[in-house]
Design a protein that fits this description.
The chain has 340 residues and is an alpha/beta fold. The chain folds into two domains: 8-143 and 319-338, Glycogen Phosphorylase B (Rossmann fold, 3-Layer(aba) Sandwich); 154-317, Rossmann fold, CATH 3.40.50.2000. It is 41% helix and 15% strand. It has helices spanning 8-22, 36-44, 60-73, 83-86, 121-129, 178-185, 202-211, 227-233, 248-255, 266-271, 286-298, 302-317, 320-338; strands at 28-31, 48-51, 78-81, 97-101, 115-118, 137-139, 165-169, 192-196, 218-222, 236-239, 260-263, 279-281. The protein has a six-stranded parallel sheet with strand order 9-8-7-10-11-12, with helices on both faces. Strands 3-4-5-6 form a four-stranded parallel sheet. A two-stranded parallel sheet has the order 1-2. Strand 3 (78-81), helix 4 (83-86) and strand 4 (97-101) form a beta-alpha-beta unit. Helix 6 (178-185) packs across helix 11 and helix 9 packs across helix 12 (302-317). The chain is globular. The relative contact order is 0.11.
Length: 340
Protein backbone atom coordinates (compact mmCIF):
# COMPACT_ATOMS: atom_id res chain seq x y z
CA UNK A 1 0.00 0.00 0.00
CA UNK A 2 1.49 3.29 -1.13
CA UNK A 3 -1.53 5.53 -0.62
CA UNK A 4 -2.05 8.69 1.36
CA UNK A 5 -1.38 9.05 5.05
CA UNK A 6 -5.13 8.71 5.62
CA UNK A 7 -8.15 7.97 3.46
CA UNK A 8 -10.96 5.62 2.56
CA UNK A 9 -8.91 3.23 0.41
CA UNK A 10 -6.25 3.14 3.10
CA UNK A 11 -8.93 2.16 5.64
CA UNK A 12 -10.16 -0.59 3.32
CA UNK A 13 -6.67 -2.03 3.08
CA UNK A 14 -6.15 -1.88 6.85
CA UNK A 15 -9.47 -3.49 7.65
CA UNK A 16 -9.02 -6.13 4.94
CA UNK A 17 -5.65 -7.15 6.33
CA UNK A 18 -7.05 -7.29 9.86
CA UNK A 19 -10.02 -9.44 8.81
CA UNK A 20 -7.77 -11.90 7.01
CA UNK A 21 -5.43 -12.02 10.01
CA UNK A 22 -8.37 -12.88 12.27
CA UNK A 23 -9.24 -15.65 9.79
CA UNK A 24 -5.78 -17.15 10.30
CA UNK A 25 -4.11 -15.87 7.14
CA UNK A 26 -0.40 -15.14 7.56
CA UNK A 27 0.48 -11.80 5.96
CA UNK A 28 3.30 -9.34 5.58
CA UNK A 29 2.89 -5.69 4.62
CA UNK A 30 5.00 -3.13 2.78
CA UNK A 31 3.70 0.40 3.27
CA UNK A 32 4.76 3.95 3.93
CA UNK A 33 5.87 4.98 7.40
CA UNK A 34 3.54 7.99 7.71
CA UNK A 35 0.60 6.50 9.63
CA UNK A 36 1.48 5.19 13.07
CA UNK A 37 -2.11 4.12 13.76
CA UNK A 38 -2.03 1.73 10.81
CA UNK A 39 1.48 0.47 11.54
CA UNK A 40 0.62 -0.17 15.19
CA UNK A 41 -2.54 -2.07 14.23
CA UNK A 42 -0.56 -4.38 11.95
CA UNK A 43 2.15 -5.02 14.51
CA UNK A 44 -0.31 -5.71 17.32
CA UNK A 45 -1.78 -8.47 15.12
CA UNK A 46 1.65 -9.99 14.71
CA UNK A 47 1.87 -8.96 11.04
CA UNK A 48 5.33 -8.34 9.68
CA UNK A 49 5.65 -4.75 8.46
CA UNK A 50 8.31 -3.21 6.25
CA UNK A 51 8.25 0.48 5.39
CA UNK A 52 9.29 2.01 2.09
CA UNK A 53 9.01 5.39 0.38
CA UNK A 54 7.38 4.25 -2.91
CA UNK A 55 9.29 7.10 -4.55
CA UNK A 56 8.94 6.71 -8.32
CA UNK A 57 11.92 8.99 -8.95
CA UNK A 58 14.20 6.71 -6.90
CA UNK A 59 12.42 3.34 -6.97
CA UNK A 60 15.31 1.05 -6.10
CA UNK A 61 14.94 0.98 -2.27
CA UNK A 62 11.23 0.18 -2.51
CA UNK A 63 11.77 -2.42 -5.22
CA UNK A 64 14.45 -3.99 -3.04
CA UNK A 65 12.18 -4.06 0.03
CA UNK A 66 9.39 -5.80 -1.90
CA UNK A 67 11.76 -8.30 -3.53
CA UNK A 68 13.36 -9.10 -0.18
CA UNK A 69 10.01 -9.64 1.49
CA UNK A 70 8.83 -11.96 -1.30
CA UNK A 71 12.06 -13.93 -1.01
CA UNK A 72 11.91 -14.23 2.79
CA UNK A 73 8.16 -14.48 3.42
CA UNK A 74 7.47 -16.67 0.35
CA UNK A 75 3.85 -15.59 -0.11
CA UNK A 76 1.25 -17.50 -2.06
CA UNK A 77 0.04 -14.22 -3.56
CA UNK A 78 1.03 -10.55 -3.51
CA UNK A 79 -1.66 -7.85 -3.62
CA UNK A 80 -0.92 -4.27 -4.68
CA UNK A 81 -3.45 -1.82 -3.29
CA UNK A 82 -3.97 1.02 -5.80
CA UNK A 83 -1.95 2.20 -8.75
CA UNK A 84 1.21 3.56 -7.17
CA UNK A 85 1.93 0.33 -5.33
CA UNK A 86 1.23 -1.62 -8.51
CA UNK A 87 4.01 0.20 -10.31
CA UNK A 88 6.53 -1.46 -7.95
CA UNK A 89 5.36 -5.03 -8.53
CA UNK A 90 8.26 -7.22 -9.72
CA UNK A 91 7.87 -9.01 -13.06
CA UNK A 92 9.29 -12.20 -11.56
CA UNK A 93 6.18 -12.70 -9.40
CA UNK A 94 3.63 -11.55 -11.97
CA UNK A 95 1.69 -14.82 -12.17
CA UNK A 96 0.66 -14.51 -8.50
CA UNK A 97 0.33 -10.73 -8.22
CA UNK A 98 -3.01 -8.93 -7.85
CA UNK A 99 -3.77 -5.30 -8.64
CA UNK A 100 -6.50 -3.73 -6.46
CA UNK A 101 -8.61 -0.96 -7.99
CA UNK A 102 -10.33 1.55 -5.74
CA UNK A 103 -10.57 3.94 -8.69
CA UNK A 104 -10.38 4.01 -12.47
CA UNK A 105 -6.65 3.27 -12.74
CA UNK A 106 -4.95 2.58 -16.03
CA UNK A 107 -3.96 -1.03 -16.61
CA UNK A 108 -0.37 -0.03 -17.31
CA UNK A 109 0.06 0.72 -13.60
CA UNK A 110 -0.50 -2.99 -12.92
CA UNK A 111 1.58 -4.29 -15.82
CA UNK A 112 3.26 -6.82 -13.52
CA UNK A 113 -0.01 -8.09 -12.06
CA UNK A 114 -1.69 -10.98 -13.86
CA UNK A 115 -4.82 -10.69 -11.67
CA UNK A 116 -7.12 -7.77 -10.92
CA UNK A 117 -9.70 -6.95 -8.26
CA UNK A 118 -12.29 -4.19 -8.57
CA UNK A 119 -14.15 -2.71 -5.64
CA UNK A 120 -17.41 -2.26 -7.58
CA UNK A 121 -19.35 -3.56 -10.55
CA UNK A 122 -18.35 -0.53 -12.60
CA UNK A 123 -14.68 -0.87 -11.71
CA UNK A 124 -14.82 -4.49 -12.86
CA UNK A 125 -16.26 -3.27 -16.17
CA UNK A 126 -13.43 -0.74 -16.40
CA UNK A 127 -10.81 -3.43 -15.78
CA UNK A 128 -12.22 -5.76 -18.44
CA UNK A 129 -12.62 -2.98 -21.01
CA UNK A 130 -8.87 -2.41 -20.78
CA UNK A 131 -8.28 -5.95 -22.03
CA UNK A 132 -8.04 -8.04 -18.87
CA UNK A 133 -9.51 -11.52 -19.52
CA UNK A 134 -12.77 -12.19 -17.73
CA UNK A 135 -11.28 -15.07 -15.72
CA UNK A 136 -8.46 -12.84 -14.42
CA UNK A 137 -10.64 -10.21 -12.73
CA UNK A 138 -13.24 -10.20 -9.97
CA UNK A 139 -15.20 -8.02 -7.57
CA UNK A 140 -14.33 -8.23 -3.90
CA UNK A 141 -16.54 -5.84 -1.98
CA UNK A 142 -15.35 -3.96 1.03
CA UNK A 143 -16.92 -4.45 4.44
CA UNK A 144 -17.59 -2.61 7.68
CA UNK A 145 -18.12 -3.97 11.17
CA UNK A 146 -18.94 -1.75 14.12
CA UNK A 147 -20.27 -4.44 16.44
CA UNK A 148 -20.05 -3.33 20.05
CA UNK A 149 -18.63 0.13 19.31
CA UNK A 150 -19.98 2.65 21.87
CA UNK A 151 -21.38 5.96 20.65
CA UNK A 152 -19.31 9.12 20.85
CA UNK A 153 -20.41 11.67 23.44
CA UNK A 154 -22.11 14.60 21.67
CA UNK A 155 -21.14 16.90 24.53
CA UNK A 156 -17.47 16.24 23.76
CA UNK A 157 -18.18 17.57 20.26
CA UNK A 158 -20.02 20.65 21.54
CA UNK A 159 -23.38 19.28 20.42
CA UNK A 160 -26.61 19.09 22.43
CA UNK A 161 -27.56 15.53 23.32
CA UNK A 162 -31.03 15.85 21.73
CA UNK A 163 -29.90 17.60 18.51
CA UNK A 164 -30.25 15.85 15.14
CA UNK A 165 -26.79 15.22 13.70
CA UNK A 166 -25.74 14.64 10.09
CA UNK A 167 -22.35 12.92 9.83
CA UNK A 168 -20.12 13.40 6.80
CA UNK A 169 -17.08 11.13 6.55
CA UNK A 170 -15.05 12.78 3.81
CA UNK A 171 -11.78 14.27 2.74
CA UNK A 172 -12.02 18.05 2.54
CA UNK A 173 -11.78 18.09 -1.24
CA UNK A 174 -13.85 19.62 -4.02
CA UNK A 175 -14.96 16.16 -5.18
CA UNK A 176 -16.70 15.47 -1.88
CA UNK A 177 -19.39 18.17 -2.26
CA UNK A 178 -19.10 19.46 1.29
CA UNK A 179 -19.88 23.00 0.15
CA UNK A 180 -23.24 21.65 -1.04
CA UNK A 181 -23.77 20.09 2.38
CA UNK A 182 -23.07 23.41 4.12
CA UNK A 183 -25.42 25.30 1.80
CA UNK A 184 -28.13 22.70 2.43
CA UNK A 185 -27.60 22.80 6.19
CA UNK A 186 -28.33 26.53 6.16
CA UNK A 187 -31.83 25.58 4.95
CA UNK A 188 -32.43 23.02 7.73
CA UNK A 189 -32.83 24.80 11.09
CA UNK A 190 -31.69 22.88 14.14
CA UNK A 191 -29.55 20.35 12.25
CA UNK A 192 -25.99 19.88 13.50
CA UNK A 193 -23.28 18.59 11.14
CA UNK A 194 -20.11 16.71 11.99
CA UNK A 195 -17.51 16.65 9.22
CA UNK A 196 -14.82 14.05 9.91
CA UNK A 197 -11.84 14.40 7.59
CA UNK A 198 -9.02 16.66 6.57
CA UNK A 199 -7.80 17.97 3.25
CA UNK A 200 -6.86 20.97 1.12
CA UNK A 201 -10.20 22.81 1.39
CA UNK A 202 -10.25 23.06 5.17
CA UNK A 203 -9.74 26.84 5.36
CA UNK A 204 -12.12 27.49 2.45
CA UNK A 205 -14.89 25.34 3.88
CA UNK A 206 -14.54 26.85 7.34
CA UNK A 207 -14.74 30.34 5.85
CA UNK A 208 -17.85 29.34 3.88
CA UNK A 209 -19.36 27.93 7.06
CA UNK A 210 -18.80 31.28 8.80
CA UNK A 211 -20.35 33.22 5.90
CA UNK A 212 -23.45 31.04 6.16
CA UNK A 213 -23.72 31.66 9.90
CA UNK A 214 -23.28 27.97 10.70
CA UNK A 215 -20.35 28.06 13.11
CA UNK A 216 -22.69 27.21 15.98
CA UNK A 217 -23.99 24.04 14.26
CA UNK A 218 -21.10 22.63 12.19
CA UNK A 219 -18.14 20.82 13.71
CA UNK A 220 -14.97 20.16 11.71
CA UNK A 221 -13.50 17.15 13.49
CA UNK A 222 -10.37 16.50 11.43
CA UNK A 223 -9.31 12.98 10.55
CA UNK A 224 -10.80 10.40 12.94
CA UNK A 225 -10.01 6.76 13.55
CA UNK A 226 -13.25 6.25 15.50
CA UNK A 227 -15.82 6.52 12.74
CA UNK A 228 -17.88 3.72 14.31
CA UNK A 229 -18.39 5.83 17.44
CA UNK A 230 -19.33 8.87 15.36
CA UNK A 231 -21.79 6.83 13.32
CA UNK A 232 -23.42 5.44 16.46
CA UNK A 233 -23.95 8.97 17.79
CA UNK A 234 -25.30 10.43 14.54
CA UNK A 235 -28.88 10.70 13.32
CA UNK A 236 -28.08 10.01 9.68
CA UNK A 237 -25.18 10.00 7.21
CA UNK A 238 -24.81 12.69 4.54
CA UNK A 239 -22.80 11.69 1.47
CA UNK A 240 -22.89 14.55 -1.08
CA UNK A 241 -19.89 13.56 -3.24
CA UNK A 242 -19.71 14.84 -6.79
CA UNK A 243 -17.30 12.06 -7.80
CA UNK A 244 -17.08 8.67 -6.12
CA UNK A 245 -16.05 5.36 -7.75
CA UNK A 246 -17.71 3.62 -4.80
CA UNK A 247 -17.63 5.33 -1.45
CA UNK A 248 -17.17 3.22 1.66
CA UNK A 249 -19.42 5.69 3.46
CA UNK A 250 -22.39 3.84 1.96
CA UNK A 251 -21.34 0.58 3.60
CA UNK A 252 -20.45 2.37 6.84
CA UNK A 253 -23.95 3.82 7.11
CA UNK A 254 -25.62 0.49 6.38
CA UNK A 255 -23.37 -1.42 8.79
CA UNK A 256 -24.03 1.10 11.56
CA UNK A 257 -27.81 1.06 10.93
CA UNK A 258 -27.96 4.73 10.06
CA UNK A 259 -30.15 6.31 7.34
CA UNK A 260 -28.15 7.37 4.29
CA UNK A 261 -28.62 10.47 2.13
CA UNK A 262 -26.32 10.20 -0.90
CA UNK A 263 -25.71 12.15 -4.09
CA UNK A 264 -25.91 10.16 -7.31
CA UNK A 265 -22.20 9.88 -8.07
CA UNK A 266 -21.49 6.69 -10.02
CA UNK A 267 -20.50 4.60 -6.99
CA UNK A 268 -23.47 5.29 -4.70
CA UNK A 269 -25.86 5.31 -7.67
CA UNK A 270 -24.89 1.69 -8.44
CA UNK A 271 -25.85 0.46 -4.97
CA UNK A 272 -28.31 2.88 -3.38
CA UNK A 273 -31.96 2.35 -4.31
CA UNK A 274 -33.83 5.58 -3.62
CA UNK A 275 -36.35 5.18 -0.85
CA UNK A 276 -35.29 1.60 -0.11
CA UNK A 277 -31.78 1.60 1.39
CA UNK A 278 -31.13 5.34 1.23
CA UNK A 279 -32.26 8.58 -0.34
CA UNK A 280 -30.50 9.24 -3.65
CA UNK A 281 -30.43 12.85 -4.80
CA UNK A 282 -28.90 14.72 -7.76
CA UNK A 283 -25.31 15.91 -7.35
CA UNK A 284 -24.76 19.60 -6.60
CA UNK A 285 -28.44 20.14 -5.77
CA UNK A 286 -28.67 22.11 -2.55
CA UNK A 287 -32.46 22.11 -2.36
CA UNK A 288 -32.71 18.36 -3.00
CA UNK A 289 -30.15 17.64 -0.27
CA UNK A 290 -31.88 19.96 2.19
CA UNK A 291 -35.24 18.37 1.45
CA UNK A 292 -33.85 14.84 1.85
CA UNK A 293 -32.30 15.70 5.20
CA UNK A 294 -35.55 17.27 6.40
CA UNK A 295 -37.45 14.14 5.31
CA UNK A 296 -35.16 11.81 7.29
CA UNK A 297 -35.56 14.03 10.34
CA UNK A 298 -39.35 14.45 10.19
CA UNK A 299 -41.15 12.00 7.87
CA UNK A 300 -42.80 9.28 9.98
CA UNK A 301 -41.29 5.85 9.45
CA UNK A 302 -38.82 6.91 6.75
CA UNK A 303 -35.63 6.62 8.81
CA UNK A 304 -36.53 3.14 10.06
CA UNK A 305 -37.39 1.94 6.53
CA UNK A 306 -34.07 3.20 5.16
CA UNK A 307 -32.19 1.55 8.02
CA UNK A 308 -33.93 -1.76 7.39
CA UNK A 309 -33.20 -1.59 3.66
CA UNK A 310 -29.61 -0.60 4.23
CA UNK A 311 -29.08 -3.36 6.73
CA UNK A 312 -30.47 -5.90 4.26
CA UNK A 313 -28.06 -4.66 1.57
CA UNK A 314 -25.20 -4.88 4.04
CA UNK A 315 -26.00 -8.41 5.16
CA UNK A 316 -26.32 -9.59 1.56
CA UNK A 317 -22.98 -8.28 0.30
CA UNK A 318 -20.80 -6.23 2.63
CA UNK A 319 -20.13 -8.22 5.80
CA UNK A 320 -16.71 -9.14 7.09
CA UNK A 321 -17.49 -12.83 6.51
CA UNK A 322 -18.34 -12.13 2.85
CA UNK A 323 -15.08 -10.22 2.37
CA UNK A 324 -12.99 -13.04 3.87
CA UNK A 325 -14.87 -15.70 1.90
CA UNK A 326 -14.49 -13.91 -1.44
CA UNK A 327 -10.86 -12.93 -0.82
CA UNK A 328 -9.78 -16.46 0.08
CA UNK A 329 -11.65 -17.93 -2.89
CA UNK A 330 -9.88 -15.54 -5.24
CA UNK A 331 -6.46 -16.15 -3.70
CA UNK A 332 -6.95 -19.90 -3.99
CA UNK A 333 -7.85 -19.47 -7.64
CA UNK A 334 -4.71 -17.42 -8.26
CA UNK A 335 -2.53 -20.11 -6.69
CA UNK A 336 -4.28 -22.97 -8.44
CA UNK A 337 -4.21 -21.45 -11.92
CA UNK A 338 -0.66 -20.14 -11.61
CA UNK A 339 0.49 -23.76 -11.15
CA UNK A 340 -1.19 -25.04 -14.33
Amino acid sequence: MAGAKEGGAENIMLEGVMALADAGVAQAVVTRADNEFRLKAFREKGIRVETASFNKLWPFPTQGAIARLIREFRPDVAEYWMGRAGEFAPASFRSRSIGWYGGYYKLVRFANCAWHVGLTKDLLRHIREQGVPENRAAIIHTYADFTGVPAADPAALDTPADAPVALALARLHEKKGLDTLLDATAKVPGLYVWIAGDGPLEAELKAHCTRLGLDDRVRFLGWRNDRGALLAASTFVAFPSRYEPFGTVTVDAWAASRPLVAADAVGPAAYVVDGVNGLLIPKNNVDALANAMRRVMSEPGLASRLVAGGRASYEATFTRAAFVRDSLAFYERVVRESQL
